[in-house]
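Q: Got one fold?
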Amino acid sequence: MHITLIVVGKLKERYWRDACAEYIKRLSAVAKITLLELPDIDSARVGGVGCAIQKECDHIVSVLPDNAYRVLCDIQGMLVSSEEIAELISSQQVQGHSHFVFIVGGSYGVNEQVKQAVDARISLGRITLPHNLARVVVLEQLYRAHRIIAGAPYHK
């Protein structure tokens, strides 16, 4: 399995980087992990928030792999449990997908262009998470999904 995580922005604080590195290390035992960190756009430099969103989203769409199952983490997406994330991955593997892309947008969110370019939109909850924390949560949930699929005890 190949997992690509596309994120907007770099992690500045060490504790975020350490948390992500831990889950990437755990996942790398069972999957090839690719992390694509795209630059976040300063809205003051490009003519406002709308222009920043457009530039970030254009970049996201430009790096989306063609043959992957694409999942956007979106507060307006389908509210899912850990078990449902595992089922989503498992069912898509049965259908022949071996490459999964998970997208975490920047602090401004994403536009319809990105929403239309994905196969699924899932919500990590109805609360708003800072995108740094969302990145950690996605990686942890991917690791948890692997453990659920494998029937391993980490999940409980």
Notes: The two ends are 24 Å apart (CA to CA). The chain has six helices and five strands. The helical segments are 14-28, 43-46, 49-63, 82-94, 112-116, 131-150.
